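Per your request, structure below.
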């Protein structure tokens, strides 16, 4: 009796195993047909709202400019040979007070440095200068999606900056005549900066930003060797599109996909 039941169960078990293997193979074939791009893009198809009210924005950006100069005219002097290195690091945080509108604040640290040989008629001298500073920029951002799923968008930042910088310059003439200049700059600026946001992976986005229009008030106090201190007040209004000043950054949007 038991032998007959076992003989009847063998075809049933065999049929179930064949069915399971067929189902697994069909599922694997379907998964293979989904490309990595389609799998990544599917994240943005449902309930993806990066610029929705109450979302939180975190960002980090940087800009870098490295110049090698040789026999280059620069204002009232000529750079025989030298190197200029500038960088700017920006940490950002923001909160969407409404859909597509964000209030935020940026904290940045920057440095400019030059070292090289100058010809300032009638003398040739060695120059080494460095400036380090920081700034705080409260700003408001308005975003405009360029695609239906909001993965690509255009934004405009309008902000006010407050900052301070220290600078030091040393010039050596005739190998023994040294002139030192040191001082402090106080900065106040208003600027407009457009940019592009592209979501590369889930809530992470790449940003490209360009400073286009700005007003800056700068108060400089400096001293050369043991001479009395001097003070200069300068105002600048700039409308400049410079590809070399592009600011590249990475951002993370908390609450983008709910």
């Amino acid at each position: 009796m038991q032998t007959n039941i076992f003989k009847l169960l063998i075809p049933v078990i065999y049929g179930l195993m064949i069915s399971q293997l067929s189902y697994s193979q069909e599922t694997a074939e379907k998964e293979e047909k989904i490309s990595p791009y389609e799998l990544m893009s599917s994240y943005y198809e449902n309930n993806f709202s990066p610029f929705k009210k109450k979302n939180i924005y975190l960002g980090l950006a940087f800009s870098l400019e490295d110049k090698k100069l040789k026999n280059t005219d620069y204002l009232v002097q000529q750079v025989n040979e030298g190197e200029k290195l500038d960088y700017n690091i920006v940490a950002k945080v923001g909160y969407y007070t409404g859909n597509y509108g964000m209030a935020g604040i940026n904290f940045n640290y920057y440095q400019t440095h030059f070292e090289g040989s100058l010809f300032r008629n009638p003398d040739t001298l060695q120059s080494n200068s460095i400036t380090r500073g920081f700034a705080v920029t409260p700003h408001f951002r308005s975003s405009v999606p360029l695609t239906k799923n909001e993965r690509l968008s255009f934004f405009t930042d309008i902000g006010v900056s407050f900052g301070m910088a220290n600078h030091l310059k040393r010039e050596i003439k005739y190998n023994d005549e040294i002139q030192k200049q040191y001082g402090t700059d106080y900065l106040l600026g208003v600027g407009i900066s457009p940019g592009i946001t592209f979501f590369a992976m889930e809530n992470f986005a790449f940003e490209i930003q360009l400073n286009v229009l700005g007003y800056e008030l700068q108060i400089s106090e400096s001293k050369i060797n043991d001479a009395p201190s001097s003070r200069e007040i300068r105002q600048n209004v700039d409308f400049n599109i410079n590809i070399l000043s592009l600011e590249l950054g990475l951002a993370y949007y908390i609450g983008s996909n709910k």
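The CA atoms of residues 82 and 125 lie 12 Å apart.

Regards,
D.
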